[in-house]
Amino acid sequence: MTEGAATPDRKPTASLRLLAVFGVAGLSLSLSVVVGTIFLTNARWSVEEEIASAYRIASGIIEERSARFSDAPDTMLAAIELAREIDHLRHVAAYVTDPIGVVLSEGSGVPLEPRAAPEWFAAMLAPEPRLSSFPITRYPNILGNVRLVSDPADEIEEVWEDFRLVMPTIAGAGMVALAFALAMILAILRRLGVCRDALDRLRAGDVTARAPEQGLSEFAALAEGVNALATHLESEQRENERLQRRLLTLSEAERSQLASDLHDGVGPSLFALRVALRDAQVLALDAPPMLAAPLCEALGALQRHAEALQRLTRSAIASLRPMLPGDASLDEMLGEMACSFMDIAPSTRIEVVAQPLSLGEVVDLCIYRFAQESVLNAVRHGRAQQVRIELAPEAGPAPRRLVVRVIDDGRGPPNGVTEPSYGLIGIMDRARAIGARFVPPQRAGNRTVTELSLPLDETNRPPPSGATHPEKQHA
Ligand SMILES: Nc1ncnc2c1ncn2[C@@H]1O[C@H](COP(=O)(O)OP(=O)(O)OP(=O)(O)O)[C@@H](O)[C@H]1O
Ligand SMILES: [Mg+2]
């Protein structure tokens, strides 16, 4: 296999739409996780810094002020006052205990729990708790301790407020990106869809299919490519049809020439032979009795052979050339053909329902041969008792088609399957040559229908409506 050749067996397993949805959703989620992690790591680090710095300041103040406790008139009161002041500072809490640890100060003395932030969030951000004790001394006694603890609750609250604002914003941005990506993908798929529809119609044989104009340059190039391909295919098909029609015309011309040669050459000679034989038969009557009887018998045999030869020649001429140009319209030719079947299938009733019509010699002959082969098949293979040939323009707006149907009441193709042989292949070749569509025999109820339809365009135009006559029936 050549490299890059199409591999029709390989079915596509991915859809661009799903890829885009999952891709953008995954990307938004990953982005949210990364931003959230960076945000939290950074927040944890700054909470730690803030707390450490506040703790350092508070420790410094307590150390400095506790050195002067002994000068105060009431040392414990001064210590409680100091604890209250420190307790008002951010990120720290302070309280006073007696030497055995009983809390003496009024302040909370206990670090606050964050109110709004959930526990898991506080646990992630909270730094290692810090606790220091500063002894309250009045020489020589230790009256108690000022205890200092770190209090990250308010800082965590602040971070939580920011977090609550940032994360929904990121999630919202992700949703917007997802919606935008989806809208883009749908727009792309819609534009690809119209090109694919045009290609599908081309593949189905409709070479007039074109992709509509596209506003975006990339799709405009694609549509142009599809349309260029369609135009090329259409011109190739037209050329092909023209050549086939030409071939058909030549072949019909040859057949017509053969028919003329037979008619003009063999016909008169056969006629002359029969006349001469008749004369000889008359003369033979006067021959001596010994000779007269065998002579008359031999001449009679010759006469019969000459008649058979004349019949054969006539039927060969009729088969080669069912009519002479301008002789008859299509419906009349079909009527003639139906009558000719009386010899082959006397019990079969063949009916022609058609308007007087002529679409030019070549097309008329194609339709004629289609009908002839279809009737023959119905009689031969289907054992039909009734065959109907219908010829009518399709109902509906222009451009219309002429539909020719041969409907028979026979048993239809064996197992419903038609294996084309010379007959159907010949019909198909002719149909292609005149741009017609052939539908091989198909069962429809208890009937078998074979159909040929062709566009009624400039090439195949029926006579003006004024020239048509009421529908005729031949049987
Ligand atoms: N109206 C019909 N009813 C039943 N069978 C049909 C009919 N038309 C076609 N067939 C089936 O289609 C086959 C192909 O038809 P086709 O005319 O191509 O070949 P054929 O008649 O067998 O031979 P020939 O080449 O001499 O025409 C037939 O053999 C027959 O089985
Ligand atoms: Mg046949």
UniProtKB/TrEMBL annotation:
All residue ranges annotated as the HAMP domain in the record: 186-238
Gene Ontology molecular functions: ATP binding; phosphorelay sensor kinase activity; protein dimerization activity
CDD domains, sorted: HAMP, HATPase_UhpB-NarQ-NarX-like
The protein's Enzyme Commission number: 2.7.13.3
Keywords for the protein's UniProt record, in alphabetical order: ATP-binding, Coiled coil, Kinase, Membrane, Nucleotide-binding, Phosphoprotein, Transferase, Transmembrane, Transmembrane helix, Two-component regulatory system
Region annotated Disordered, chain positions: 444-475
Gene Ontology cellular component terms for the protein in this record: membrane
Principal subcellular localization: membrane
Superkingdom per UniProt: Bacteria
Subcellular location: Membrane
Pfam families named among the record's database cross-references: HAMP, HisKA_3, LapD_MoxY_N
Chain segments annotated as coiled-coil in the UniProt record: 226-253
Transmembrane segments: 18-40, 165-189
Reactions the enzyme catalyzes: ATP + protein L-histidine = ADP + protein N-phospho-L-histidine
PANTHER family in the cross-refs: NITRATE/NITRITE SENSOR PROTEIN NARX-RELATED, NITRATE_NITRITE SENSOR PROTEIN NARQ
Protein name: histidine kinase
